[in-house]
């Protein structure tokens, strides 16, 4: 195989999976790792891949690249739905408690499912319950509500007014790209709470760098969430696996569970296992 043919296949592999490692490419093409590195250097010069430690990634995966929440909401919808359903199963039904839902498109899908579940549970059979008798709708007197804490406006909008949910919205400066509150006041508010579970979104999760996001203010809020909650559950579709963005906000050892839609790479899987993190593939 000519070098040009091999390099074109490397570009296609990186485009399909988002990244490729030097060792995997060497095995696939039966060449030395030195030859792979020369190929990657040539491809980076041409602008078709970006070299990172141990391999290469798509040139679009820059450390500061970040799409808006509106753009992300319409991407990988089926995968995010599966992840959200698996996360919903971790929230007990019919029991008091508190959860924190971080900003993000997958966490937003979780909020939508949680709203639908609580609305369905509060509806009851036709002709029964306080609403049917002309009384107020929602949980019965004395019934415990699930406390949901968020700093994300889209998530708050989905949960506001839902029966059985006591919504707490953390304030701060709203960042337009993610429609989430950030800043020192948000961080301080996060430090004063202790939710049972925090569902955290991330832009990248890697064996070497842990969890990361492009914006320092978002990172500060996420770090506060991670250190405040009793249990940390990360929702990350396959595009986030093995990705590294500008600012680290948690290490793998800070996590309890990662819910994703595909098996992590061997390196990431080993790192998660070493950190004692449960991996759920939805």
Number of strands: 15
Give the CA-based shape: elongated
Through-space gap between termini: 39 Å
Helical content (DSSP H or I, runs of 4+)? 40-55%
| Rg calc | 22 Å
Residues in β-strands, percent: 15-25%
Here the CATH topology of the largest domain equals: Rossmann fold
Number of domains: 2
- Class from secondary-structure proportions: alpha/beta
Q: How many DSSP H or I helices?
A: 11
User: SSE order, as H and E?
Assistant: HEHHEEHHEHHEHEEEHEEEHEEEHE
Indicate the mean pLDDT: 86
The CATH architecture term of the largest domain is 3-Layer(aba) Sandwich
- For the record, the CATH class of the largest domain is Alpha Beta
Q: What would you say about this model in short?
A:
The chain is α/β, with parallel strands linked by helices and 282 residues long. The protein has helices at residues 3-17, 22-29, 33-46, 69-73, 77-88, 105-123, 129-132, 153-159, 184-191, 216-228, 266-274; strands at residues 19-21, 50-52, 55-57, 97-101, 146-150, 165-169, 173-175, 180-182, 197-201, 204-206, 210-213, 231-235, 247-250, 257-260, 278-281. The strands form 4 sheets. A 7-stranded parallel β-sheet has the order 6-5-4-9-12-14-15, sandwiched between helices. Strands 1-3-2 form a 3-stranded antiparallel β-sheet. Strands 10-11-13 form a 3-stranded antiparallel β-sheet.
């Amino acid at each position: 195989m000519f070098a040009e043919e091999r390099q074109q296949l490397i570009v296609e592999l990186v485009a399909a999976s988002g990244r490729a490692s030097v060792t995997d490419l060497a095995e696939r093409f039966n060449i030395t790792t030195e030859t792979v590195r020369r190929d990657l250097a040539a491809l980076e010069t041409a602008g078709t891949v970006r070299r990172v430690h141990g391999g290469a990634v798509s040139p679009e995966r820059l450390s500061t690249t970040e799409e808006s929440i509106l753009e992300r909401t319409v991407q990988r919808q089926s995968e995010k739905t599966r992840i959200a359903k698996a996360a919903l199963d971790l929230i007990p039904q019919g029991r008091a408690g508190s959860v924190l839902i971080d900003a993000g498109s997958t966490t937003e899908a979780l909020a939508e499912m949680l709203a639908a579940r609580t609305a369905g549970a509060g509806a009851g059979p036709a002709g029964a319950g306080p609403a049917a008798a002309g009384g107020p709708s929602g949980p019965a007197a004395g019934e415990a509500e699930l406390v949901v804490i968020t700093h994300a406006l889209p998530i708050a909008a989905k949960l506001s007014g839902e029966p059985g949910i006591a919504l707490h919205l953390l304030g701060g400066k709203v960042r337009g790209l993610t429609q989430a509150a950030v800043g020192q006041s948000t961080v301080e508010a996060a430090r004063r709470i202790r939710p049972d579970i925090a569902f955290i979104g991330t832009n990248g999760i890697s064996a070497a760098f842990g969890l990361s996001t492009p914006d320092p203010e978002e990172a500060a809020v996420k770090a506060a969430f991670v250190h405040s909650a009793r249990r940390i559950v990360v929702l990350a579709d396959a595009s986030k696996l093995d990705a590294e963005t500008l600012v680290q906000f948690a290490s793998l050892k800070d996590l309890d569970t990662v819910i994703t839609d595909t098996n992590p790479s061997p390196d990431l899987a080993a790192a998660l296992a070493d950190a004692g993190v449960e991996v759920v593939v939805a």
